């Protein structure tokens, strides 16, 4: 195999020949990796049997992607290089056993976009109408994993997702942070200057309010159930000659063959949504992990203080605290806490042990790799 660090030729024909040679080497290595993945599947099946084998290992994939980013020397940036390897791993994993991933639908939502970012495109997508349906699909074994939104940097937490963990046995197996970019989309069959109605989810309309006020003050804003539904309506309206637009993301744009009138129209460019991956198994430590807990506090003075004090004493970094009504007793509350570390680490075990002594219930929702992409 030739040395890829040798002097790069400086004429167009030679450069193209060089690219063709490199492409051939890359293709051979990808297929070699795929054959290794098939061998891994064979070994797992021989050792564990078809009923118990787990092909997807969140901690292993997080470790691989971290190494990819740490050794990257450019000119592709770390995230772009990791995306390339993410898809290679997705394609190789599909050779072992394609995964069915449930997500909050319909198709074209940001949740589907997060699912594809985390698992790659070589999956079977299963859109669900509601968050609790995603949980049920995974609990029943009809889907390998589920993807649900949990918080947005501008709109706050998704309470329905937090509440779904109360009675579910599912564990959090991973997280995805997706930068939310909204685009103004129209059908290729209409003139964008004729648009008088703009469809989108109410949160997306809120996240683009200032931009719409400035550039489309004359257009009526119509809230619908999802951005994907808005994109569908825009595509169908275009076929009927009606001039309407939608605010939606990249996946919806591609899915419904729409045209971008304006890109990245969100008022806050750092608008980010965090999604959780839910599954049936606990995840081993990856070396850079986060743990989520559900805690029911005792109804007594200073209860919350005594819970939080355990984190300070054992130098465990708590990154999030959310409060929800308990639905069991009047004015009772449960707390959702995220902290840095894996639940099996000594310091984390010490914190959990103290919490169990001081709270009426402590439920480990899962330890999982910190989002890589």
From TrEMBL:
Keywords: Amino-acid biosynthesis, Aromatic amino acid biosynthesis, Cytoplasm, Isomerase, Lyase, Multifunctional enzyme, Phenylalanine biosynthesis. The record marks 273 as: Essential for prephenate dehydratase activity. Its EC number is 4.2.1.51, 5.4.99.5. Residues 100-280 form the Prephenate dehydratase domain. The gene is pheA. It is found in: Cytoplasm. The keyword Mitochondrion does not apply. This is Bifunctional chorismate mutase/prephenate dehydratase. Its main location: cytoplasm. It comes from the Bacteria. PROSITE patterns: ACT (PS51671), CHORISMATE_MUT_2 (PS51168), PREPHENATE_DEHYDR_1 (PS00857), PREPHENATE_DEHYDR_2 (PS00858), PREPHENATE_DEHYDR_3 (PS51171). Residues 6-100 form the Chorismate mutase domain. Catalyzes the Claisen rearrangement of chorismate to prephenate and the decarboxylation/dehydration of prephenate to phenylpyruvate. It holds the Pfam family CM_2. Pathway: Amino-acid biosynthesis; L-phenylalanine biosynthesis; phenylpyruvate from prephenate: step 1/1; Metabolic intermediate biosynthesis; prephenate biosynthesis; prephenate from chorismate: step 1/1. One of its GO terms (biological process) is chorismate metabolic process. CDD domains: ACT_CM-PDT, PBP2_PDT_1. The keyword Nucleus does not apply. It catalyses: prephenate + H(+) = 3-phenylpyruvate + CO2 + H2O; chorismate = prephenate.
């Amino acid at each position: 195999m030739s040395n890829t660090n040798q002097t790069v030729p400086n004429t167009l024909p030679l450069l193209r020949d060089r690219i063709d040679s490199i492409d051939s080497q890359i293709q051979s290595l990808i297929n070699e990796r795929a054959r290794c993945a098939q061998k891994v599947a064979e070994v797992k099946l021989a050792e564990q049997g078809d009923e118990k084998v787990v092909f997807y290992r969140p901690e292993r994939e997080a470790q691989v992607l971290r190494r990819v980013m740490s050794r990257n020397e450019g000119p592709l940036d770390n995230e772009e290089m990791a995306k390339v390897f993410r898809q290679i791993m997705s394609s190789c994993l599909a050779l072992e056993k394609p995964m069915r991933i449930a997500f909050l639908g319909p198709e074209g939502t940001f949740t589907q976009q997060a699912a594809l970012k985390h698992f790659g495109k070589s999956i079977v997508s299963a859109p669900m109408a509601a968050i609790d349906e995603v949980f049920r699909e995974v609990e029943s074994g009809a889907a390998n994993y589920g993807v649900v939104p949990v918080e947005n940097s501008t709109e706050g937490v998704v309470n329905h997702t937090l509440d779904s963990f109360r009675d579910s046995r599912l564990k959090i197996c991973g997280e995805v942070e997706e930068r939310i970019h909204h685009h103004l989309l129209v059908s290729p069959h209409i003139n964008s200057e004729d648009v008088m109605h703009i469809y989108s989810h109410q949160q997306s309309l809120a996240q683009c309010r200032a931009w719409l006020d400035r550039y489309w003050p004359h257009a009526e804003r119509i809230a619908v159930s999802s951005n994907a539904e808005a994109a569908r309506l825009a595509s169908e309206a275009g076929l009927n000659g009606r001039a309407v637009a939608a605010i939606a993301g990249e996946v919806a744009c591609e899915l419904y063959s729409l045209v971008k009138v304006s890109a990245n129209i969100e008022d806050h460019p750092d608008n980010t949504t965090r999604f959780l991956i839910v599954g049936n198994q606990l995840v081993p430590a990856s070396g850079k992990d986060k743990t989520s807990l559900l805690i029911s506090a005792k109804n007594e003075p200073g209860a919350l203080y005594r819970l939080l004090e355990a984190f300070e004493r054992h130098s465990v970094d708590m990154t999030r605290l959310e409060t929800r009504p308990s639905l069991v007793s009047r004015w009772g509350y449960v707390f959702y806490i995220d902290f840095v570390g894996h639940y099996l680490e000594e310091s984390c075990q010490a914190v959990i042990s103290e919490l169990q002594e001081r709270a009426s219930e402590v439920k480990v929702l899962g330890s999982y790799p910190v989002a890589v992409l």
